[in-house]
Amino acid sequence: MTERPIFEPPHTLLVATEGWSDAGEAATSALRMVVEHFGLVPYEVISDEAYFDYQVTRPFVQIESDGSRVISWPDITLFGPDRHEGDGEGPFVILGAEPSRMWRQLADQMVLQALSQDVDQMVLCGAMLADVPHSRPVRMLSSSEDQEIREALDVERSSYEGPVGILSVLGLQAQESGIAVMNLWAQVPHYVHTSPSPKATLAILDRLHELTGIDIPRGSLLEQAEVWEENIDSLAAEDDDMLAYIHQLEKQRDTVESPEASGDAIAKEFERYLNKRPDWPGGVAGGEG
Predict the structure, then answer these.
(1) Can you tell me where the transmembrane regions are (predicted)?
(2) How far is CA 286 from CA 126, 161, 185, 186, 210, in A?
């Protein structure tokens, strides 16, 4: 891997959307930390009901400090550096709910906005449920259609075929418009899919640091990740079946990643994984790409 980050923040757009491509809320949590760290401001907020099915992504009602009730509607937002504060720093970020309709039109709109800000690189951040143990380092899957990125970072093209989310639609539209795109996915244990995964969020931030040089203060995230892992250990200790299953996943992971692991062993492990979970789009190295 190249020593110098090839994704320059002023010209890079980071993208994550809630829902289907955000297991454990890992990707959106990571990018929210990026937005907060750099003080990025909204450049465009898309909340048009033509894009959203409110029975799928419901609005929220909340009570303000003055006692009034306010409804917060689903949206997807392009954030960027605050131009009123000097030159502004940091990347551009797209963050929000995954729209339900008119994906191609939305992708065109977002790509045009990105190009207007001289963005020429994009990192699509997602998180997928997978047959992985919570007790091991988070496995990150990376892929790109861009030859220069593949050569610089030693990553492959995605071989996935199947259903996709808005990330893929946006990524393909960006590529056709001349923006170099990198796909970055964290694997989250499927047996803890109902809770946020701070460990996966940390892994995404670490990978973004390698790619862009952006170093986001972790705050209490490290402690949260430790507590998350300890809580799962406690639950598993009370369930013999779950404990046995986790030990099986640990053995499989350690076998594949051991120095003695052969190419055939690795291929066999991936074949087992794909055959067992053919319905999940992240079931191929590189995510949905």
Answers:
(1) none
(2) 10, 11, 7, 10, 17
pLDDT for res 10: 81
> Domain total for the chain?
1
pLDDT at 18 over 90: yes
Residue 289 pLDDT greater than 80, yes or no: no
Residue 106 has pLDDT above 70, yes or no: yes
Q: What is the residue-averaged pLDDT of the chain?
A: 87
Question: CB neighbours of 171 closer than 8 A, spacing ≥ 6?
Answer: 122, 124, 181, 183, 289
> What CATH number does residue 127 fall under?
3.40.50.10900
pTM of the model: 0.85
Q: Is residue 134 part of a domain?
A: yes
Closest CA to 148 of 121, 170, 127, 109: 121
* The token pair that represents 233 in the structure block: 């250990």
Domain carrying residue 30: 9-219
What pLDDT, on a 0 to 100 scale, did the predictor assign at position 187?
A: 95
Is 46 among the domain residues? yes
Whole-number Å distance between alpha carbons of 138 and 141: 10
Question: Mean of the pLDDT values across residues 224-238?
Answer: 94
